[in-house]
Amino acid sequence: MKQDEEPPGTTCRGDGGHGAVVPSPGRAPRVAERVLAPGADEIESRFRSRRVRIVRPLVLAATGVLRLVRGYDWSPLGLEHLTEVDGPVLLASNHASHADTAAILGVLPPHLRERTCVAAALDVFGPVNGARCFSRAALRREAVQLFVAAAYRAFGFDRHGPPLRSLRTASQLVQRGWSLLLYPEGTRSRNGEVGQFKPGVAVLARLTGAAVIPIFVNGGRDILPPGSRLPRRAHAVVVFGHPMRIHEGESAEAFTHRVRDQVRRLERTARAGRRVIDRRPPRRTRVAAMLRRAVPALLHSQRGE
Questions:
Q1: Distance between CA atoms of residues 206 and 246, nearest Å
Q2: For the domain 40-280, what is the CATH superfamily, name and number?
Q3: How many whole angstroms separate alpha carbon 92 and alpha carbon 261?
Q4: Please, which residues have CB within 8 angstroms of residue 18's CB and are 6 or more apart in sequence?
Q5: Predicted structure pTM score
Q6: Of the residues 24, 212, 274, 289, which has the maximum number of CB atoms within 10 A of its CB?
Q7: Per-residue pLDDT tens for 63-119?
Q8: d(Cα 210, Cα 272) in Å, to the nearest integer?
């Protein structure tokens, strides 16, 4: 056996998942098992892990510096709607860019942001099915999992397999006091238009009794277009709508359509807010102007003393 090979039949498992068994030479390969989405206990354990607690402040500081250096920013509209409900909420947003998550979390009030976790695609941010435990692909995916858990408190949500396990886990997290950021489209929009919503948001609303806060993000694609690795100088607007609750006897399909329609209505508000912000001078210019005013005033007050 070569030094970098794993023993025959070794299974590489990620967080809460069953990896595919690596077949031994000369043996018939077994059917690969699906990577299972993590459970609520496992998710909270990962959030509390020493690695995440150490990495989180470092990642947040680094992304803050990157935001200043690259000159991108975001602003909220409608934050007052978050005060209309008590307890955990389901944040249902359109999704056009990986920058959407950072923008939404970046404008939430701190007390809500610290108790919000993000449902992320298991096939993108979960363990690699069938990869050797110490292969480059498995290590790279583990690094991605650590980053999204530390930066966004993200967890793997199975969007392709049977949804019951992931829905049950999400429901348990809400019952434990976590708000959830969901992207009901299930993937990023390729053209910027709001796609069809999956009914999971309605199922969770019924299971948990939590209110749904519709959200529209405008400008995420300008900050981080598809395929880009570094954010660009741009400004996003995050618009929050009125809380929505599923009615008694209302079908999951009908409520899902209502949420999608409300998200689409917020687009007009987001575009109007974006036009106002685009007329403002860049953030760096505003900060520099503030410093030019503040420094002479400070020197003058010291001379006066």
A1: 7
A2: Glycerol-3-phosphate (1)-acyltransferase (3.40.1130.10)
A3: 12
A4: 11, 33, 34, 35, 36
A5: 0.77
A6: 212
A7: 999 999 999 999 999 999 999 999 999 999 999 999 999 999 999 999 999 999 999
A8: 30
User: Which residue, chain included where needed, has tokens 């948001």?
Assistant: 201
Residue labelled with tokens 């967890």: 155
- Both structure tokens of 91: 């944040």
Residue at token pair 């000159």:
71
Amino acid, single-letter form, for residue 211: A
For 253, the token pair is 């399909």
